[in-house]
Prior knowledge:
Structural class: alpha/beta
CATH architecture of the domain at 383-513: 3-Layer(aba) Sandwich
CATH topology of the domain at 383-513: Rossmann fold
Strand order of the largest sheet: 7-6-5-8-9-10-11
CATH class of the domain at 383-513: Alpha Beta
Oligomer: single chain
Amino acid sequence: MPVLLHRSADIPRPAAFERWCAVAGTATAVDGRPYLENAGERLEAAFDDIRDEWWTIGRALGTTPTAELAHMPTCGTYTSDFGVIMAWVQLVGTLAGERPATLVLCDDPWLFRRLAAVAGVAAGVAPRLWPRRLALMTRGFLARCRVAVRVARAMVRTRRLKGNHGKNERVIIAYAHPGSDGNGKDAYFGDLMRRMPGLKRLIHTDGGVDRAIALGGDGRTTSLHAWGRLVWALALPFQRWRPSRLDLDHPTEGWLIRRSRAIENGGGQPAMNCWQIRCQEAWLAEVRPAAVAWPWENHPWERAFVRAARSLGVRTVGYQHTVVGPHMYNQSPASNPNGAAGLPDRILCNGDAYRRCLAAWGVPEERLLIGGNFRLADARRVAYDPDAPLFVALSNHPPFAREMIDAIRPMAANGWTFVVRDHPMVPFAFAETANIRRADGPLEEQTCVSGVIYCTGTVGLEAILCHLPTLRFRPRGSIAMDILPPGLAARAVDADTLANALAEDVPRPSVVRHDILADIDMTAWANALGEPVPSTGTSTRRPING
């Protein structure tokens, strides 16, 4: 058989296969046979191919009760691995039609059963379902209990901040980022609060309470926790995503939907989504703001927010604060059960490249405006020096970060030098050496580098806009989302091809920053929020480095 499907504890004799791969986080190694060649590239191609099918499935599941508590129906590529698992199913189907024979190792009980149904796959004994299900059910209930205790405390501690918001005001919703302060600066909205002195800020329930309270000292910021109720907190341990029986018996992907249900209910996220939605509905009903803007990514709470705000006549403005690359499937209305009706009234984009991307994905063009870039720093002062160290921006996903560190260690032993920066929200411990040292700041604070290696996040875009040689690291066995806008690309590498890529002359990109990240247009912001254009003397546009 071209594909042998086995558990990692049931590896057949090497004579039975000529190559192998491990799926869904199965941790093992097979001696004497090579790993599937170009596995990362092939998996990514399969991930591209399953996009429309995931949109179709997500849109159908989104119509069922409790769907707003889950990320899988929204096609959130950072918050659900459903698409990656679908890509593995497609890739294994392709391998089943190839020679030589491939051993596929899978310890995931749901995915194993789905792969066993693929034509050309000879399956061994499947992993047992009940231990994993029981473990996730127990873990999920305990996690939701912990969420209930945490948000109840947060509700009590933030009550005093409710007075910072009055009725009929214009508000931004933001996360409690360490880069925000109480002097009008927000990590997502830059100096917008300074430019619009009447603007208020509301901290999302994901934000740390201590940070929210500290920001609330400005008299303009409050926390959504403050609008919670104890009875809601007491019900949180029992909040779960409950797909319908028809969904669970999907003709082809039923096993994968069951898997997503178990995984999402195996943590505290359904409880957090429920709490966020309840609090935001209570805040909307009490405060009745004139307009609300937030960092828009089309997540479950955002779709619920749009529905609630629209029912009250509140203007909604989504800020495309982050990148919209080819893998950000959740930012298309294709998975919305009500299509474009589930989008904010206006979406302000960082630049024209992103506006065109969203329009191509089905966002009505009349809703799209170019508001400019607040978030990404201008790092043009970072100089290129071929003799300087390589800057490595670790992923915020710890397994990816570990794989990046493991990939550069052999090169460091051979004389290459690296400065490594972990994600500011997800610190990552690693052992420093003479040639691998921790960076003393983000990319824009480096004097000079010889190139940039990144995996996820916006550092790759920043590096390209600095005209620095840039490599995108592909992890083995999973997908590092490509977030570069149309027209931009970085050479993709993995642990096996990184050394060869660096030994070659990686070209320095040539791109005009303004084509990707536009200057701030305060006229667009004022029009979207329904506020008079702020007087700035001569212009409503701000240079990016101003």
